[in-house]
Design a protein that fits this description.
alpha/beta, 403 residues, single chain, 12 strands, two-stranded antiparallel ribbon, 11% strand
Length: 403
């Protein structure tokens, strides 16, 4: 029989811990978020349904995105034990220059919709943490304003090729003049993907004031107040638009573009060229032969072709085929630092994240983006240590088993 006694105050007292109450609600919210999935949950509460769905959603039945995420979830990480991991180094190299962590912020259109601080908030975090930032053609802050917000950040410009080639040439010239390091050409948007959530929500740009949105105002007053009391929400690189994002893409983008157009691009841009949206070994070879410095394996976060190849699945074969002639990066479906580590082990030189930082932005503006970057970085470091690896270069395919 266990002998029992009444609890003694002297024994209880040292166990009592009073934590200072955090008065700032944003800090409180962000401290409670321990993972990107937690940030996503907060983002969902903080933003109107149509805004959250525009960000979170993908094309058609969203199978591309689900498969990408489920491959990350179901793979097995295989550690080596008894290795010295007292100092784990997360630095890697992107475009031949050192980067503090092995991920960049992917281009995302209409970022000031998610939070009024938008692109400027993201690029400031990028500057502080040494993470490259890609401004989208569909951005809501101008090329020059993003450069002013974070003059020391590594900035890249993402281009969609428009029917009006002169407009693209003008954007490239402005990006060059504003000190952007590289051009990222996105090649998986000959036409817009079918974003069914946007159609169902009646989501348009700019957000329309319908009965639905008026009801939503009551549910998300802070978001609406910020929308209505800050600079009007417009695209920075094109004239204003009245319609869905898909209609806009179809009106502007040139579906006749081919590999031969890379020559035109090369003539306009003499810096590093990143081609984003490659999905097969054959195409990776073709764009590298045509002069790409980086191939980004991506299906646009599942927002274009549904049931597209899962980038992580194609990665080992592409890395082998490219064989060091260009860098190979990947995105789509990354929700944790462990996902990033798995991609590096399977042959990626680096990765990019889209929604992961946007969930942070929606959850708490600039501080939310910082929290997202902090979570990913901590997870990368911890996963590497648990795998018995102290530098990115030591990761290899033996560390991952794909299902
Ligand atoms: C809301 C949103 C907007 C996006 N806008 C663009 C864009 O303007 N240009 C582009 O090349 N890719 C765009 N993407 C795709 C991202 O660059 C990236 O490929 C994708 O988000 C990666 O998947 P992940 O969100 O699972 O990390 C967008 C993605 C999201 C979620």
């Amino acid at each position: 029989m266990t002998e029992r006694q009444l609890p003694q105050w002297s024994a209880l007292k040292p166990l009592l811990r009073t934590r200072p109450i955090e008065l700032d609600p944003t800090t409180r919210r962000l401290e409670r978020a321990l993972s990107i999935t937690d940030l996503r949950r907060t983002a969902r509460r903080r933003t109107p349904r149509s805004v959250f769905d525009y960000t979170d959603g993908a094309a058609d039945a969203e199978i591309s995105l689900r498969r990408a995420r489920s491959l990350f979830r179901n793979l097995e990480l295989r550690p080596s034990v008894l290795r010295d991991v007292s100092a784990v180094d997360t630095t890697t190299s992107m475009l031949g220059r050192p980067a503090a962590v092995p991920f960049a912020f992917a281009p995302t259109g209409f970022t000031r919709l998610m939070h009024h601080e938008g692109e400027s908030a993201v690029v400031r975090v990028a500057q502080r943490r040494g993470i490259p930032y890609t401004l989208s053609t569909m951005g809501t802050t101008s090329i020059e304003d993003v450069a002013t917000a974070a003059p020391e950040a590594r900035r890249w410009f993402q281009l969609y090729v428009w029917k009006d080639r002169a407009a693209g040439e003008d954007l490239m010239a402005r990006a060059k003049a504003a000190g952007y390091e590289a051009l990222m050409l996105t090649v998986d948007v000959p036409v817009a993907g079918a974003r069914l959530r946007d159609v169902r929500n009646g989501f348009s740009i700019p957000p329309a004031l319908t009965l639905k949105t008026v009801v939503d105002t009551a549910l998300h007053p802070a978001w609406w107040l910020n929308l209505l009391t800050t600079r009007p929400l417009t695209f920075a690189s094109m004239s204003s638009w009245d319609g869905t994002v898909a209609e806009l893409l179809d009106a502007l983008f040139d579906p006749s573009m081919t590999l031969a157009d890379l020559e035109w691009l090369r003539a306009c841009w003499d810096g590093p060229l990143i081609i984003k949206g490659v999905q097969t070994v054959q195409d990776a070879r073709r764009v590298v032969d045509a002069g790409a410095d980086v191939v980004v394996l991506s299906n646009h976060g599942g927002r274009q072709l549904d049931r597209a190849p899962v980038p992580l699945r194609v990665l080992p074969d592409v890395a082998e085929a490219v064989d060091g002639r260009a860098e190979v990066w990947m995105d789509t479906g990354i929700l944790s630092g462990a996902d990033i580590v798995a991609a590096l082990a399977l042959g990626a030189d680096a990765t990019m994240v889209g929604r992961a930082y946007l969930y942070g932005l929606m959850a708490g503006g600039e501080r939310g983006v910082d929290r997202a970057a902090e979570i990913l970085t901590t997870e990368i470091r911890r996963t590497m240590a648990l795998l018995g690896v102290s530098s990115v270069a030591d990761l290899n395919p033996d560390h991952v088993r794909l299902p």
